[in-house]
Specification:
Blueprint: E1 8-9, E2 16-17, E3 28-30, E4 35-37, E5 53-55, H1 56-98
Antiparallel strand pairs: 1-2, 3-4, 3-5
């Protein structure tokens, strides 16, 4: 299911067909609805008429770039977080060695 619409792959292939227009392959991406659509879905009177859409391959490339960019940001934050954890662990060790009477006590 993609954004509330049921899409069925045809037997023996990865091609998905439109739930509204069963003979039409889903080759487009509606940018407004963020949904896979067929060419029939763009015709006047259809739910997606007048919306901006791109070929599915173009949408996949764009979203892949967006995901890769986000992944780089997450990896950077993870590196910084791990560094902070190491620093906190070092600080904890120093505190425990300087104040052994407080080891394991919290108040």
């Amino acid at each position: 299911m993609v954004n509330g619409q049921q899409h069925q792959p045809s037997a023996g292939s990865n091609v998905q067909h439109c739930s509204e227009h069963a003979q039409q392959a889903l080759k487009l991406y509606c940018e407004k609805c963020e949904d896979l659509i067929c060419s029939e879905c763009t015709i006047k009177g259809s739910e997606h008429h007048g919306h901006d859409y791109v070929l599915l391959d173009e949408a996949l490339k764009k979203h892949k770039k967006d995901i890769e960019s986000l992944l780089l940001k997450v990896e950077g934050r993870l590196t910084a977080t791990n560094k902070t954890l190491v620093e906190l662990d070092d600080t904890k060790g120093k505190c425990q060695s300087q104040y052994p009477q407080y080891n394991g006590k919290t108040s």
